[in-house]
Amino acid sequence: AILQFGTHQLPNNLKEWESYRSELRSKIIQKTGLIVNHDLPLDIKGTGSIQMKGYQIKNIAFQTRPGVYATANLYVPEGKGPFPAVIVMHGHWPGGRLYESFQAIGQSLALNGYVCLNIDAWGAGERTRTHGKDEYHGANLGASLMNIGETLAGVQISDNMRGVDLLSSLPYVDAKNIGATGASGGGNQTMWLAAMDERIKAALPVVSVGTFESCVMRSNCICELLPDGLTFTEEAGVLALVAPRALKMANIIADNPTFLSSEMLRSFNNTRPVFKMLGVENNISNLVLDKTHGYWPEN
User: Fold this and answer.
1) In which region does residue 48 sit, left (phi positive, over 0), alpha (psi from -120 to 50) or beta (all else)?
2) Predicted TM-score (pTM) of this structure
3) Angstrom distance (rounded) from CA 68 to CA 181
4) Alpha carbon of residue 109 to chain centroid
5) How does pLDDT run across 206-215, given as a tens digit for each residue?
6) Strand 246-252 relative to strand 83-89: parallel, antiparallel, unpaired?
7) What is the chain's alpha carbon radius of gyration, rounded to the nearest angstrom?
8) How far apart are CA 266 and CA 6, in angstroms?
9) Which of 14, 16, 57, 215 is most buried by a 10 A CB count?
10) Long-range Cβ contacts of 23-30 (<8 Å, 24+ apart)
């Protein structure tokens, strides 16, 4: 893993970068088994709403694949809009999107004039095998998708791209200004979504960015697995796919060894030259906090 990290240097000229970028995107689609169908009806189902001071919370489900629905909360500010929007992806905390931190993110965004879509990941939150029973979607449960040529990472990317489809379809959303954020496993989803969907204009992955080397040598959820990934790229390559759009990585000093701030900085330093080459060096940044693993107001 250490040797492979050193071999995956990103191109330092535009011609080679464009070729590398195209090939890497194709490889990710192939290795994750990513399936995307933007023409599939969203079939949004509303199951209730809560009126708050300055915004409304809508409980919804929408179709991500034929006959497959994602549960979500939609936070809508008062006013006519169109509003900028953010898709929020939770990590490995109990309750999925209903975990306190992710509810707080949606509420804070709505109070600041953003529409927010807070989505349950495949196999988490309300999307478990037994309704109402919380479970962990990783390990053997998530790995079972590989038996049919797909991956948990791939179905998450697909679901989240459908979430962007949903936001783009709303008349009160400015479809040209959609961002993405999440923490831990949700931060990982943020990275993949922003890399693969150019409709995401700004991405803030929290306590998630490390290196593929640190994943291989330490631990990661099956939802964070790119099969054969380290044989053809490093995490910096995926992060660089976000360029020239905006990317900020927020980590903490002492964390799971997989995504220590020192590992994030290795990827950051390998990614930044691509942004600089594209003339947008100010569009990539990082933040390191002295906190515990989580999504904090300081982020």
Assistant:
1) left
2) 0.97
3) 23
4) 17
5) 999 999 999 8
6) unpaired
7) 18
8) 11
9) 215
10) 24/232, 24/233, 24/237, 24/238, 24/241, 25/195, 25/196, 25/241, 27/232, 27/233, 28/195, 28/196, 28/226, 28/238, 29/196
